[in-house]
Design a protein that fits this description.
Length: 307
Amino acid sequence: MNYNKHDMDMEPLGSSGFVPYDVYAKSKRNQAKKVETKGSLPKQNLDESLADDENLYIVSQKQEERKASQSVLLRKCFIVCVCLVMSLVLNLFSFQVPYTPSLVSIDFSSLAELLAAFTVHPLISVAIILLKNGVYCLINPGAVPSVPGKIIINVAFVLFTWLFYVLLTRTGNKGDGDPMTAKIKRDFSSERVLLCGTASALVTAILSVLTFKTVTMPLVAKYLGQDMDVFSKILLANYRQAFDSLTVRFDFVAKIVPSIDSLTEALLFYNITMNFAKFFISALIVSVVFAVVRTFIYKNQTGLEQK
């Protein structure tokens, strides 16, 4: 059998030996072809005009993408309206928890605001919080002094939860040098939403004590025309009365917390507990339903990407 010089050229392949030059060249050509290929469409020569069927395909694809984007936008607007109505209604139906101070009430409007953050955008949630409290001030003008503190707490809960989620789900493959694989990826899983919501609920509950003492109390005292010391004593008496009724009903509480001697202790005992429970329940419900809502919003877009 005869061999020419071209066939006898060899190229090394690691430490395992050699391969014929034609095999090596073919492998290189295949690699170059893959680089010039995006998805299933080869790289186009811009100097050549597209065929009619190619033009028709591109136009139809753009039309489908436009329709899918419009559908997503409409669904987002619908979800925003639903979340706004939910927030308004839940805020109006606030209630007092048994064995808690009569001046303290609880509502689950943060549920709708957190849902809007994960399904649309966190800034939409902030807008919903502002609109909700604006409407509440119109309906109940006497509650105006307490509104700034509520806005701070609700906004903090939503933004902390979103921030924790982004930090937790931030991944990237920096080793291959490919900018496409180094993009931020967010896996919207229910477990992560609940975990981040729980962490945010704890941080926000602690923040609520500081907000109440530095923002809410001065505004309410000024609105009522009372001195801060007098108003603090009134609040402490109200908290102590609720605590006494709680220890009478549940003896084990007195063993854990024998007494409440200051307003700070009262706020730490009641405000942190109630705010944490409220925000945790909201995060728990959102972690269950948000995936369904996101699927509803992006279902057409997902189907288009699969084509």
